[in-house]
Amino acid sequence: MAGLELDDVTKVYGDENAGVVAVEDVSVEVPDGDFLVLVGPSGCGKSTTLRMIAGLEAVTDGEVRLGDRTINEVSAQDRDIAMVFQSYALYPHKTVRANMAFGLEESTELSETEIDETVEETAALMGIDELLDRKPGELSGGQQQRVALGRAIVRDPDAFLMDEPLSNLDAKLRAEMRTELQHLQEQLGVTTVYVTHDQTEAMTMGDRIAVLNQGELQQVGTPLECYHEPNNLFVAGFIGEPSMNFFDGRLDGAWVATDAFDYPLGPATSDDLEDGSELVLGIRPEDIRVSDRRTGDRGFEAGVSVVEPMGNENIIHLRFDGATAVEEFIATTEGVPTVSGGDRVTVEFPEEAIHLFDAESGTAVKNRRLAFTGAVDGMLP
Ligand code: ADP
User: Fold this and answer.
1) Which pLDDT score, from 0 to 100, does residue 373 have?
2) Domain of 157?
3) What is the CA(309)–ligand 1 centre distance, in A?
4) For 351, which of 46, 140, 279, 335 is 20 to 30 Å away at the CA?
5) pLDDT confidence of 371, banded at 50, 70, 90?
């Protein structure tokens, strides 16, 4: 087993000077035994990054290190890294046992008996020991994915790379497999990089997540750090469902003036900012307090357009006077909904919950602090 490190890794497809820059100067470290989730929208460079680690794609610039050696020039077969894909890529005519044994037969000197023992141990670990003599066509999607994982595990690699391995499964099975994979990864203690475009998967699975956009790394942190202390507008908007609400504004003395409201900042915040600067004020839906009473100078009147009762929470679509449909914002409340479409309400944005971003660069200039959320050491209370 070994840790993994990317040091200023860049990938340009095609001509080095005029090609597509798929990944740019990405540096990230995955300590030995850790689980890193690489997350970002489609086309942001996740698969390319993973394929460079696997040795399936050449690195244009920078270094990939596994343990204490640089592996840029090491061929994929010699990297001792196992990869699991969205498509299970099992051999259809071989049994589960033969599928799992194949890699070992090719890459190790183990005897047939030793291979058989290893396959059976791993199959038991994965709960597929009853299926060893079946062919992939006789298995469900979830079972096939388990075999694909088992085939990777049986090789006892230095690192696992997983490229959206659960996306072909239905929602319930996906949620189950997420938990199972996490347990398994902890139990095996193998350094793992897991790629997904799904922020929920990233939030629930990773020790740490690395958020990528347009080939550039935006933030590496625990899921809760990325959620509560986003580095920039992109991370703030990408992590969290429903998304953070954003309002364009400008600093006017100790106030953020937007089209819909003027928001007073405490001196500690406004003193650090340049008067007149263009800002984006952000607030998460669950931090907005919705009531029928005026609540001081951080409460503003708004109209309710739609309420979606989800059972555990209500998604309330709101609009300030004069705003268009695209300028709607969202608040979430728990329990039985107390407002409905057409109501006039007061929405309060508590100061400790707001985020401020520089409108031009997108950089966060004020975040709510993790401490305010009651979360300790990245764990929910
Ligand atoms: P993701 O996995 O995040 O969806 P990819 O790593 O597949 O993103 O792609 C990143 C960027 O690189 C995209 O703009 C994509 O079009 C481009 N790209 C990927 N593979 C190739 C290739 N073989 N040749 C040229 N461009 C590619």
Assistant:
1) 60
2) 4-233
3) 39
4) 335
5) low
